[in-house]
Write a structure and sequence with these properties.
Radius of gyration: 14 Å
Number of helices: 4
Helix content: 25-40%
Shape: globular
Strand content: 25-35%
Order of helices and strands: HEHHHEEEEE
Strand order of the largest sheet: 1-4-3-6
Largest sheet: 4 strands, mixed
């Protein structure tokens, strides 16, 4: 498994776009824009540190992101707010088409970690994993 050594907004954005491309190819999606709904996931028996709690209570709060359809730039800025720390894993799920816009759900860990600890390195676009019906 390839270890991720660095993470910044550009790498994060590129990896998210690679994941979107993987899903689009599998599903035959054609769109001109995409939006994202961020869904933080509290993992059972996984402790949060101070930075995780700050993100959970402020940036990733229901009031701030709850069911909002965010642009790519806004999504990257939110999830890279503690760069180089980012969510340890993020599942990317296609939700629906809204005219020419593809809507994706990003189910993400509330644990923000350094690049060497990120999951899904084997996908080539850590911390993202494309989730389609076949992978459920």
């Amino acid at each position: 498994m390839e270890e991720i050594k660095q993470m910044n907004k550009d790498i994060f954005r590129e990896n998210l776009l690679k994941t979107i491309e993987e899903i689009s190819r599998k599903k035959g999606l054609i769109f001109t824009d995409c939006k994202f709904v961020i869904e933080p996931v509290k993992e059972k028996d996984k402790p949060l540190n101070g930075a995780d709690d700050m993100m959970r209570l402020n940036i990733l709060s229901e009031e701030n992101i709850g069911n909002k359809r965010l642009t790519l730039d806004k999504t990257v800025n939110i999830l890279c707010g503690l760069q180089p720390l980012v969510p340890i894993w993020i599942d990317v799920i296609f939700v629906e088409m809204n005219e020419d816009t593809a809507i994706y759900k990003l189910r993400c860990s509330l644990r923000f970690r350094k690049p060497t600890l990120l999951r899904n390195a084997e996908t080539g676009h850590a911390p993202f994993k494309a989730v389609t019906e076949e992978t459920f």
